[in-house]
Amino acid sequence: MSDTLPPTRPTRPGPNAGPWGSAPTARAPSPETRVAPAPEDKGQPLVWSVLSTLLLGGLIWWISGSWVIAVAAIWGLFVHEYGHVLAMNRLGMGPAKIYIIPFLGGMAKGQRMPKSEWDGVLVSLAGPAFGLLAAIPLFAGFIITGQGEWLLGAAIIALINLVNLAPAPPLDGSKALGPVLARIHPNVERGAMVLVGALVVIWGLTTGRFILAAFLAIALIGHLRRGAWRPEGRPLTGREAGQSVGLFLAAAVACAGVGIAALMPLAGGSLPGALAVAGRYLGIGA
């Protein structure tokens, strides 16, 4: 997931800032405007970051019973969020910070709103696209050890990135497809987000993912009350809207492809078998 601070935040990156680095330096307001400086965003405290990571990893280990899967999920989460960080810093929204949410996941947070909806799309898709690179060491682990847990870890990484592409607030897919739907009509965007969000919440409840379902439900209600469905700045052009859909589909296909490639050896090389394994894990199969 990714997030940004209000566009009026008058900050600029410090010389040694990083995803967990020191806070950006605030610009001094001019005497004419007399605008009070915005509070500095120091990022998540290191102790709280470590504790949150341990809590999340412990939950995954308790559910899966595998340290390999727990480490893979945490590793995949960090690489995914760092993809957002790289895009934010590249597009002038940094220095971005990574926040770990106990028992839920992570979030990359920028200092400024994107300059255009196109920048917002690129930031949202950078996480899932870059996050797939985290699966490479897991495939290598399987080649070296021959243990299927490493492939399951790679599949988990693919799943993390694929789920984030769901067009439901606050997942990345809502920021990637939201501006495209808004070109049709703002109500089309709202309706799609509410519908998909409700389906994801129902999926979480029916498959026992109660914490995730509660988190998504709260986020969906917050988006409805706030009404901020798109980043401020220049709207998408028609060409950019087409490119947004193309990049979204490419990212989704890549995530699904990595997941299937990880599961096929566990299913005896059978594509239907790999899809059945994925379906059972997602709670949509027999």
pLDDT averaged over residues: 81
What Rg is obtained from the alpha carbons, in whole angstroms? 20 Å
What order do the helices and strands follow? Answer: EEEHHEEHHHHHHHH
**Biggest sheet layout:** 3 strands, mixed
User: What ranges have pLDDT less than 50 throughout 5 or more consecutive residues?
Assistant: 5-37
Comma- or semicolon-separated keywords:
single chain, 286 residues, mainly alpha, 3-stranded mixed beta sheet, 61% helix, globular
Structure overview:
The protein is mainly alpha-helical and 286 residues long. It is globular. The strands form two sheets. A three-stranded mixed β-sheet has the order 1-5-4. It has a two-stranded antiparallel ribbon with strand order 2-3. It has helices at 46-64, 67-90, 117-131, 135-145, 148-163, 172-184, 186-206, 210-226, 238-263, 271-282, and strands at residues 2-4, 11-12, 25-26, 97-101, 105-110. A hairpin with a 3-residue loop joins strand 4 and strand 5.
Task: Write the topology of this structure.
Layout: E1 2-4, E2 11-12, E3 25-26, H1 46-64, H2 67-90, E4 97-101, E5 105-110, H3 117-131, H4 135-145, H5 148-163, H6 172-184, H7 186-206, H8 210-226, H9 238-263, H10 271-282
Question: Would you kindly provide a brief summary of this structure?
Answer:
By secondary structure, the protein is mainly alpha-helical.
